[in-house]
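Methods — Computational structure assignment.
A single polypeptide chain was analysed. Its primary sequence is given first, followed by the predicted tertiary structure written as structure tokens.
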Amino acid sequence: MTRRKVWIALLVCGLATFAAVGLLEYRWRQSLLPLGVRAPVITYAKETTWGWGPGGNETGVIVYRMDRTSAERVRAGGIAWLEGEASRPTGPLQRPAADRRLRRTYSDWRTTPLEALWSGHGEHSCGREPGLGAYVDYDDFRCRVDPEVIARANRVLQTPGAFVARGQAGRIVIVAPAERLVIIAYNG
């Protein structure tokens, strides 16, 4: 085998690995969406991880673009749809496997506008305005999220017509059908 063929084989293997990791990451992020909500386009994702398993810590924000059908269903059905009808899977990435159903379970749905959430920084001053920035920058663990993403999420939280819920493992979801936007933030 010539050197050129070896280099080509190594390049192909590297690109295949890169593509496989990207696909797995995409599928994982899609599996966090509430059941019934289709948002195939991820417009922003930022995560910081320190450690794995018990004692590990991660924080991040994922912003999705909802498809028109999902946005119309959420707008028309509101919290009742999100709590009931949305429990039915809408696609192959939303199969009702036990682990996926757990990740997709959100509770305590509320409508916006909400009073300023996550305004207390405790003994730490993260330098962020109250809202999603303070939630993501909780405690000593920081995730440098684009300030425009934080500002947009905070605007959604203060504008009527969106829905917010809590999920497993320190996760929250914001569903804004008027903007066709889903934001998932987590810390913990």
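Note: The helical segments are 3-30, 68-83, 98-103, 132-136, 147-158.
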